[in-house]
Amino acid sequence: MKKAKRWIGLLLVCALLMGMLPMHASAAEVSLTYRQTAQGDVVLGLSGLEGSKALYGVALEVTLAGTYQPAQISLSPADPLAYSPGHSVQVATSGGKTTATVYLVSHLALNSGGSLTLGALTASGMGIIPESAKVLLLDSDALTGGLDSSAMETVPVVQSTGSEGPDLPFGASYTITAPQAPHGTYQVLAAARENQVVTVYVQPDVGYKLATLTVTAKGQPVALLDMGGGQYTFRMPGADVVLEAVFVASGIYLPFTDLPEGYWANSSIQYVYEHGMMKGTDETTFAPEMATDRSMIVTILHRLEGSPEEGSNVFADVPAGAWYEAPVAWAAANELVQGYGGGLFGPTDVITREQMVTILHRYAKFKGYDVSATADLTQFTDLRTLSPFAVEPMRWAVGCGLINGTGDNHLSAQGSATRAQAAAILARFCQNIH
Questions:
Q1: % of residues, the chain, pLDDT over 70
Q2: Residues contacting residue 126 through CB under 8 Å, at least 6 positions apart
Q3: 132, 159, 186 — which closes off a domain?
Q4: Is residue 297, in this structure, part of any structural domain at all?
Q5: N or C: which end of the chain has fewer CB within 10 A?
Q6: For residue 12, is pLDDT > 60?
Q7: Cβ-defined contacts of 409-413 (< 8 Å, 24+)
Q8: What is the pLDDT of residue 80?
């Protein structure tokens, strides 16, 4: 609470410096609106605002069904550049419910006449519809007491007009019971409102695959839609549901004759092979000790992202029509790679361990994953060989277990990453970083 007050104080100081002296505006006619997309995202907004007044601040308190940790709740602003200095979410739980309070302040008018789009609300990375809401509005007339949460007014929660898909009414919230199954994991909301589209993210362990996934309500099956990529959706019925998964050994055959039984990276190689991230150097050879080059890494991430067509070639040493042209263009467009300078990328250069973790660190940021993990690198006797650009990525990589050193307390930052090492790092990344 003290942290929240300090944050609010900073926002008010910023507002004063910008010449805005906000006060509470009436929320008597205001409603919190929600719109759920076909992909399950839940976009919040405010309607019924006094169109003649510009709003420069909003405090929103929503109550959600289910219990969530603070790090699991997020509101992604519709226009993040408009907010100064940013936005904050305060979370509290009680009695199987979660209350999330969001503070938004800007030097620009937030609303457009009588409406305001707030952004996408997620719990555990999945869209969730609030059960109830309170708001506090700040306009530019005068400062009468600051951002006082006790002044929040209860507003109705209603479905937005023009929602995507069938215009179904959303009812009360019901719980989702999802006991974890052996040999795999899945993520799903703790509760959802009736008619809400719920997404289930399924991740089998290495060497396993999903055999069955069922959702039942009052003993009756609920229809599931396979969205591909380990994602399934169902529409929440007007009852509690139980989700059950069964994972079985995949039984996939690795056709590589150069991987002896018991080889340390076999499970990781099987994972990246199963998921289409890495292939053999030919039909029967994986070449686990071969060095990985820079074009291979960006191609793997490009496949992981679904091989999007994005960006154009900006490097003189990436030939037109090369098998890695599209992956390198995509990686450069999203600032995953920057090249050596002088218009060169070095596609066939052996990638070093520090270069690989730097690219993965940038990719994790690009995906919005948690990159807060860090580690003390002074345990490594060859720390002096680590390049300055790779210090933060390497701390993250060691901190979250992607890199463990190469023995004798060596980081081997300048050493090459073999195909087996690359498979191990990529498997750990996909299974543990999200």
A1: 84
A2: 40, 187, 188, 189, 198, 199, 201
A3: 159
A4: yes
A5: N
A6: no
A7: 409/379, 409/380, 409/381, 410/380, 410/381, 410/382, 411/353, 411/377, 411/380, 411/382, 411/383, 411/385, 411/386, 412/353, 412/382, 413/352, 413/353, 413/354, 413/382, 413/385, 413/386, 413/387
A8: 58
Whether pLDDT at 17 is above 60: no
Q: Quick one: 272 and 342 in the same domain?
A: yes
Q: Residue 134 — pLDDT band, cuts 50, 70, 90?
A: very high
The phi-psi region of residue 416 (left if phi > 0; otherwise alpha if psi is between -120 and 50; otherwise beta) is beta
Cα(190)–Cα(200) distance, rounded to whole angstroms? 11
Tell me: do 271 and 239 sit in the same domain. no
Nearest to 46 by CA among 126, 122, 137, 108: 137
Number of domains observed in the structure of the chain = 3
C-alpha distances in Å from residue 70, one per residue of 63, 98, 123, 386? 13, 9, 9, 35
State yes or no: pLDDT of 288 exceeds 80: yes
Asked whether the predicted pLDDT for residue 291 surpasses 80, the reply is yes
Q: 140 and 21 in contact (C-beta within 8 Å)?
A: yes
